[in-house]
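Worked example

This section walks through a single chain of length 295. The input is the sequence exactly as stored; nothing has been trimmed or padded.
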Amino acid sequence: MEKIITNSARAWLLASRPKTLMGAAVPMLTALSLAYRDGGGRFLWLPAILCVAFAMLMQVDANFVNDYFDFRHGNDDESRLGPRRACAEGWITPSAMLTGIGVTTLAACLTGLPLVWWGGWWMIAVGAACVVFCFLYTTTLSYWGLGDALVLLFFGLVPVCVTYYLLTMSLPAETVVCALACGLVIDTLLIINNYRDIDNDVRAGKRTLIVRIGSRNGRRLYLACGFMAVALLMVGSDWRLLLFCLPYLLLHVQTWREMCRINQGKALNMILGKTSRNMFVYGLTSSAGILLLAA
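Given that input, the structure is written out below as C-alpha cells.
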C-alpha cells in the first residue's frame, strides 16, 4: 500500500478525487456543444473557460467538504465500503482540510465573479447557491434523501442552462430538456454510491433515495436513468443522437449487469469506476453528435 505523506501534494491530489471531475465535465461538454451549435458562428471563449473552471473548482470544493464533514460525523470509520478518504486516512489533517475548503471556495467565487459582466448581477446569486448547497448537501440534505434532486439541479439544470445562457443570451426549452438528461446521467454515480452504502446509511440514519426505495428498485433506477437520459437528449436535440449514444447505452447495460451480479460489498467500487467511465463516454459521444449533426 502506497505511503502518503500527510498534507503533501499527492495527498491533496487524492483528496480532490480526480475521477469525480467527470461529474463537472459532462454538463460543460453538453452546454458548450449546444451553445456552439446555436451560436450562429459566434462563440464567447472567455466566459466558456470561466464556466468550466468554476465547475471544476466547485467539484473539488464539494469533495473537500464531503471529506471533512463525513470524517467529523464519523461516517468514514472502519465499516466504510467506499474509496479511502483523505481525513480518515490521515492524508490531510482536519485543520488543513478546513483551509483547503476555504481556498477552493474563494477560488471558485473569484473565478465566477467576472461572469457578472456577461450575465448580470444575478450570477452572484447563482454562485452563492452553488456554494451554499455544496455545504448543505453533506451536512444536511443527503440525510433527507435529497441528493438525487440536487444532482439534477446542480449537475444538470444549473451548469447546462446557465452556461448556455451566458454564451447565447437565450434559453430554449430544448436546452432545459438536454440539461435534465445530463443530470440523469450524473445521478447514476450517486445511485451506485448510495446502493453500495445502503446498510451503512441505514445505521447512520441517512435516508437516501436508495434507502427509501430498496436495493431492487435501486438497481432498476440505475438502469432506467441511462435510458431516460438518452431519450430526453433525443427529444431536446435530435433523434439521431441515439446512434451516437449507443456506445454509452451498451456500456451502461453491461455495467448494470455487473452491478446486479456483484450486488453488495466493496466490489461495487469497481462499478463506481465504470459508471464514471460511462458518464465520460456519454459526454463525448453526445457532444460530438450535437456538433456533427449541426455541421
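What to look for: The CA atoms of residues 145 and 208 lie 4 Å apart.
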